[in-house]
Write a structure and sequence with these properties.
Helices cover 37% and strands 18% of the residues. The protein has helices at 18-34, 59-78, 137-140, 163-166, 170-177, 195-210, 306-324, 338-351, 368-381, 391-400, 405-427, 437-442, 463-479, 488-492, 512-524, 529-534, 539-551, 553-557, and strands at 3-10, 39-41, 86-93, 108-116, 119-125, 146-152, 155-161, 182-187, 213-218, 220-223, 226-229, 233-235, 241-244, 251-258, 277-282, 330-333, 356-360, 384-387, 430-431.
Amino acid sequence: MPNLRLALCQTDPWVGDIARNSDEVVHWTKQAVEAGAQLVAFPEMALTGYPVEDLALRRSFVEASRSGLVELAERLAGEGLGEVPVLVGYLGRSEQASPRFGRPAGSPQNCAAVLFHGEVVTRFAKHHLPNYGVFDEFRWFVPGDQLPVLRLHGVDVALAICEDIWQDGGRVTAAREAEAGLLLVINGSPYERNKDDVRLELVRRRAAEAGCALAYVNMVGGQDELVFDGDSIVVGTDGDVLARSPQFEEHLLVLDLDLPVASSDHTDGLLLADGLRLVRTELAGTAGTADAAPAPRAEVAPRLSDEAEIWAALVAGTGAYVRKNGFRSVLIGLSGGIDSALVAALAVDAIGAENVYCVSMPSRYSSQHSRDDAAELARRTGLNFRTVSIAPMFDAYLAATDLTGLAEENLQSRLRGTLLMAISNQEGHIVLAPGNKSELAVGYSTLYGDSVGAYGPIKDVYKSLIFRLAHWRNEEAERRGEVPPIPENTISKPPSAELRPDQKDTDSLPDYDLLDTVLGLYVEGDQGRDAIVAAGFDPAVVDRVVRLVDTAEYKRRQYPPGPKISVKGFGRDRRLPITNRWRRG
C-alpha cells in the first residue's frame, strides 16, 4: 500500500490577526516539510481564528480572509514550501444564493482550502453547522454542499470540518461512498471535562462508518470563554489509535500512514450522501518527500488526570485572555480565602509570579489568620503583594450614611472592588474576579464588589471542585519538589466572606457538596424542581436553590467572562430570561 506522511499542526490562532496567523502557518509548515510531510493540515479557521462571531458579518473581514488566503499560498511557494499541499481553515463566502436558508450569494461561510504550488487549488465550506451550546453558526454561515477529495500519491483523502463528523451521515457517509482511504478533519472543538474520551469514541465510530482511517486536528489556546485543548488524533479503520497529540500544547504530529490505493473512478459532480457533490482534486503528480527525512515514530501522548486537565484548561484560558488582549499583568484581591488563593495560583502558572499583583484589603471583620494566609501564599509563590486597609474608607462611609445589615456587608465588598479598579487604572493591570460557579449560581456575590474584573478564571468551577483543585495543585508541587502554593489553613478552614463577625458561608447556603449536587442537576442537567425532588433531595432545599438560581440571573449577566470547563457554563451556554416567573423548573 502507498505510504502517506501526514502532518497535523495543532496551533493557537488569534481571532482577527490574519497576518500573525499566516506567519504561524508558514512557521509550522516549514517544520512539517523538514520532517518529510507530504500533506499538512491546520485547524478550523486557522487563518482568522475561531470563533469569529459577528466579525463574519463584516464584508471587510471576509475579504481580508479571502485575500489573505491567496497571499498565504503565494508566500508558501515563495519560501520553498509550495511542493506540499497545505489544508487551512479560513472565513469565506458563498458563490450562489441559498434560498433554503434565505441567504443571498456572498453570504459568509466557514471554509477550508488546499494551498499548493502557490495557488488555492480547492475550497469547500463546512456542511453541518452547529447551533447548540456555545455555537451559533446558523447565525453567520451557510452550509457547504461538496465532498472534497484529494488524490495524492495514489491515495484518496476526503476532507471535512469539525461538526461534519459530530453529526450522523453527511461527509462521513459520503467519504465511504467515495471510497476514500483517509478522512482528514480540521477542528475548532472547545474543551469540556472528559471531552477527550468523548472525542476518541467519536473518531473511532466515524472511522468505522467511513470505512477508512481518520485524522482529526484540533486547535489549542483560549478565545474569550472558550478553551481549546488540542488532542489531535489519528485512528485506523479498526479504531486503533495510531497517534495522538498532547493536550493544551501547540504541537506538530507527523506520522506515516499505510493507506489503500485509490481505486474509485467516480467523477466530479456525483451526488453522494445528504446531497453532497463529489469534487476531486488531482495532486498525483507531486514529488514525494517522505524519504527526505527519517520515518517519524508514532506518538501517542499520555492523557492528563481530571484535575490536571481542568487546571491546564483554566491556566490556558486565563493566560490567553491576558496575552491576546495586550496586557502583561493581573491584579487580584487576596483575602486569604480559598477562591482568591486558587485564582492567584492559577495566574502565577499562567503568566508568571512577577506579573501577578495581589492586594490584601482587610476590614474590621477580617480575621488575623486570613491576613496571614494571604501573606503566606504571596511568600510561597513570589507574587507581588501589598496590604491596603479599607477600614478608614468603611468608617467614612458609615459616618456619612445610615447603613446596617446586608447593605453594610456589601459596602465592604464594593469598597474593595473600587480600590481594585483604581489600582488597575493607575498601574495598568487587569483585575481577575474570584467568584466560583456555586456562588454565581445562587447570587452569593456582590455586584460592583467581588464581581468586578475583566476575567473570572474560576467562573465555571463549583466550590467543591475548588477544594479538589487546591489539594491537587499542592500535591503536584510536592511531586515536583516545589513549595505548595496554597497554605493548608486556607484549604481547611470553613469558607467565609468575613463581612460580619464569625460569618460562615453555611449561614446563608446549604453545605457545598449538597448545593453543588443540586446545581449540577438544575444547571447542567436542565432537570426541573419535581425531577430533582423525585431523585431524593429535600423539597425545601431544592425550592430554595431553584429560587436563588432563577433570581440571580441579572447578576450573572454582569459578571465577566471566564473559561468554560463544564458541559454548560454560565454565559454562552446557558441563556435564560432575566425577567422570569417560571419556578417549577
